[in-house]
Design the sequence.
């Protein structure tokens, strides 16, 4: 096609394709409108999200000795570290302890990697943001979606591990994608918040790193909720147990663990659907909230980055 | 909740491409400096002070179809900010802009989309960023590659490109979509003489096709030769709008005055203006 010819862009409206809010000083949009805009942003730029994810994966795969094998090795090696460490500190842990903690390490790696990546997702593209107008929501969405791929690779590690602990193998493993879907919604909501926040506070990345570490150790990943309830501090303060149970990752880790590992005394079973459903609803609400915050702050990104 | 003010309405008419009324862009220096949580706390408790800065104010502008408007002025006058507002990248703090048609902008050129990707992947990614349909981008791919004159480098990562090559690629992508309104920021100065001539021809072509062009440049010859109108911006305010020759002349006079003032100030301070102190 010669360059001079008119190329159909999107259906051309009377004004341009830039949202009206970017053209006008007045008129902050209502909350529901912002959420709807956010959904439209992502839907209209699905391909952009896909390209960004592909680019990310290609980059991480290239220039490394083992390429994508790292995504399989990484959670396994982390598990080994914890197993070695905890076998020194705690002598009698639950049986098949490696699988016990792996059920939590696998989803946590996805979450922490996505959040860390999302934190810098906006500021990393500062040049682009100053050059062209595009929905900035795609950047944290791409960061979180790229995590799905590494999570998928991580399940390969799970399969390998399952070969050693074949007694835990059960059809309940099929529930993993269901739990992962809930996790994705929750992760996305958090990703929007840290991505937008980091534009205005550049040291948020440091805070996020520490918060993540603290969150991991406070969540029942290396231990179960049942163990927590036997700790004297928690026995004396039942309120603390309630708080611990409200931790989204308490619900998710317990769900992942019950389908992958079961409990120390019983075989794998179906997850607690009631708490998963509650978490899903709460996460969707949280996601709507962070979308509104993100969309409110979005017009200022180009000035600040 | 604040009472919603009705935005100033501009009647959409087909005879203009861009209409801006009482445009103003305010920067909050509190956030433009690399902010940390600590410094924000300091401001909250009253230490440090929030500063505001108007990069652009009271700008009324109308660009007709087929017009080529030059924006000139000293560094830091707000020229690039104006283009960013027209491109919809920055939201005006005051007033409104109405744009009829698709805008394609080449603001700070040469950044590329992703340094690790090849030129070809960058075109696809760039198309996706610009909101182009993938089929359209793929269709345009050969012509963009050919126009950018990158040869075999098109399949090499962008980080291996020279600045000129990146500029060429950026220019080809931005102009290949055949925009109704093209915004150019200092891009005519990039590339070798050959490509400069070619890009000049392309810009003239877009103008001729009844498309509007707004360009920021320091190349005064280009302004007088190829633009049919010019505006002079100084310190965020439009000083003059009119015939390119007149505007260029005023800019020249102002620049000389500024230089004379700087020399005077230096002499008053007892410094030889010919000696430049490098700190």
Sequence:
């Amino acid at each position: 096609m010669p360059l001079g010819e008119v190329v159909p862009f999107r259906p051309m409206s009377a004004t341009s394709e830039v949202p009206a809010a970017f053209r006008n000083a007045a008129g902050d949009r209502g909350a529901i409108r912002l959420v709807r805009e956010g959904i439209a942003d992502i839907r209209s730029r699905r391909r952009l999200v896909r390209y960004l994810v592909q680019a990310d994966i290609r980059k991480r795969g290239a220039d490394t000795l083992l390429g994508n094998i790292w995504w399989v090795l990484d959670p396994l090696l982390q598990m080994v570290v914890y197993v070695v460490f905890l076998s020194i500190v705690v002598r009698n842990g639950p049986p098949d302890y490696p699988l016990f903690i792996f059920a939590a390490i696998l989803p946590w790696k996805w979450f922490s990697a996505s959040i860390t990546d999302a934190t810098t997702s906006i500021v990393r593209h500062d040049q682009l943001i100053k050059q062209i107008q595009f929905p900035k929501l795609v950047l944290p969405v791409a960061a979180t979606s790229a995590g799905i791929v590494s999570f998928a690779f991580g399940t390969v590690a799970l399969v390998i591990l399952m070969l050693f602990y074949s007694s835990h193998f059960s059809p309940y493993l099929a529930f993993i994608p269901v739990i992962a879907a809930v996790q994705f919604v929750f992760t996305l909501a958090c990703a929007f918040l840290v991505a937008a926040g980091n534009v205005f506070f550049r040291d948020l990345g440091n805070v996020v790193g520490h918060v993540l570490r603290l969150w991991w150790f406070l969540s029942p990943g290396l231990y179960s909720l049942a163990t927590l309830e036997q700790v004297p501090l928690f026995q004396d303060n039942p309120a603390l147990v309630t708080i611990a149970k409200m931790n989204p990752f308490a619900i998710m880790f317990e769900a992942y663990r019950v389908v992958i590992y079961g409990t120390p005394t019983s075989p794998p079973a179906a997850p607690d659907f009631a708490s998963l459903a509650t978490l899903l609803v709460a996460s969707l609400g949280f996601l709507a909230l962070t979308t509104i915050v993100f969309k409110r702050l979005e017009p200022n990104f180009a000035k600040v980055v | 909740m604040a009472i919603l003010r009705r935005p100033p309405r501009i009647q959409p008419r087909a005879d203009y491409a861009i209409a801006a009324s009482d445009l103003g862009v305010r920067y909050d220096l509190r956030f433009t400096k690399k902010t940390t949580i600590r410094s924000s706390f300091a401001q909250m408790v009253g230490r440090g002070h929030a500063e505001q800065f108007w990069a652009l104010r009271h700008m009324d502008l109308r660009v007709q179809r087929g017009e080529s408007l030059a924006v000139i002025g000293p560094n830091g006058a707000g020229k690039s900010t104006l283009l960013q507002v027209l491109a919809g990248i920055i939201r005006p703090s005051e007033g409104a802009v109405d744009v009829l048609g698709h805008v394609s902008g080449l603001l700070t050129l040469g950044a590329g989309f992703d340094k690790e990707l090849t030129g070809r992947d960058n075109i696809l990614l760039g198309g996706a960023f610009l909101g182009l349909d993938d089929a359209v981008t793929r269709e345009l791919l050969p012509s963009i590659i050919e126009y950018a004159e990158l040869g075999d480098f098109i399949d090499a990562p962008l980080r291996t490109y020279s600045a000129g090559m990146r500029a060429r690629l950026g220019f080809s992508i931005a102009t290949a979509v055949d925009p109704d309104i093209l915004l150019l920021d200092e891009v005519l100065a990039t590339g070798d003489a050959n490509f400069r001539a070619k890009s000049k021809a392309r810009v003239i072509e877009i103008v001729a096709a009844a498309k509007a062009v707004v360009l920021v440049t320091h190349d005064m010859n280009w302004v007088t030769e190829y633009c049919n109108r010019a505006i002079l911006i100084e310190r965020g305010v439009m000083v003059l709008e009119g015939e390119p020759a007149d505007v260029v002349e005023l800019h020249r006079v102002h620049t000389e005055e500024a230089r004379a003032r700087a020399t005077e100030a230096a002499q008053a301070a007892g410094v030889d203006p010919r000696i430049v102190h490098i700190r």
